[in-house]
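Per reviewer request, we include the raw input and output of the structure prediction for the construct analysed in the revised manuscript.
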Amino acid sequence: MGLVCCRRCAQVWPDTTHRCGRCGHRMSVRDPHSLQRVWAMLLMGLICYIPANLYPMLRTRTLFSVQQDTIVGGAISFIEYGSYFVAAVILIASVVIPLAKFMAIGFLAISVTRPSSVSAHQRQLLFEVVEYIGRWSMIDIFVVAIMSSLVQLNTLVAVQPGIASLFFALSVIFTMLAAQAFDSRLIWDVQAQSEGAQRHE
């Protein structure tokens, strides 16, 4: 549409404007540091995801014992008890989806810097799916918080969140920030550049 929005005060100006007439901020049609922030946030998310799977997510203390379960260990326990559906939900929400988000965001960041066989429409759809899933990524933390607040029977039984819950929450937050930092307009810029090159050929 030939317009550009100021990133400081959100005032809209013609795309030929170099400085915002309201706040004086330098105008740019595209975020020049978008990919740098994406890779930084994605790397932090991966770093936090490792201890989230190594350390216990839930600590259950009974009258005679203390049990600490990691994410995968908790899913295995549910399988042993015959709760296959609950185990599947835990594995999908805590293992499959986070790993898929890491790979999807990494793929999108790489695809705007080099030619890709995946169409721009498919990459845009992938970006929208990653952003939509992001709002549901904290479901594990909510479950741990609810269990910790409800199951407190003094000396008989007590459920407490493990240190992994903190790392998992940080990993989710960093991946959400990575998705938000990604400028999806870069997908279409790459397509426009490739189409222009094909016309010249």
